[in-house]
Amino acid sequence: MRAAYVLYNGLTVLDFIGFYDALYRLRTMRFLPEFSFQLCAQTSQVQDEHGLTILTTPTETLRGFDLLVVPGGFATRTLRHDAAFIRWLRTAADCPLKASVCSGSLLLGAAGFLTGCAATTHPSAYEQLRPYCQEVRTDRIVDEGPVVTARGVSSSLDLGLHLVRRLAGEEAQTAIRRQMDYPYQ
User: Fold this and answer.
1) 49: which residues sit within 8 A by CB, 6+ positions away?
2) Is residue 185 part of a domain?
3) In CATH, what number is assigned to the domain containing residue 39?
4) What's this model's pTM, rounded to 2 decimal places?
5) What is the mean pLDDT of residues 1-9?
């Protein structure tokens, strides 16, 4: 199981860290020992909206991954109109499971991955999301099978645990939730 975490300048770091922590435990707690991830970006480093620098692996294509996860951040509002970035994101078309947190759904939508689906995002971006999906929902997690979207920033933890359940089952989700001391329902 190979995961691509799509990073870019201006992301909200909690959008990334929440799901990262839950999914990382799949390997460390031996539920999916073969689980691996790559911090994918178009550059060798990105900065979050406050200047925190994250080292990444410049990636020409997002093909060959089993899971793609896109965090949000205010930069998504302009990045969704960046033709080169969206072309790059579309290289993940064959990825069987795509997910986003917060306004990361705007990027999935701009790439065409939300067509015909219900989706969610941060409440401040509901109107921007509408053109990309069939229905905007206010749910914390919207699971449409091959695409899962999570609402606002803190829902990244919920998304991570939701993906843990999809990938490794309820027992893994419960154990990881307890290890994180998180009251996820």
Assistant:
1) 10, 11, 12, 73, 74, 75
2) no
3) 3.40.50.880
4) 0.96
5) 97
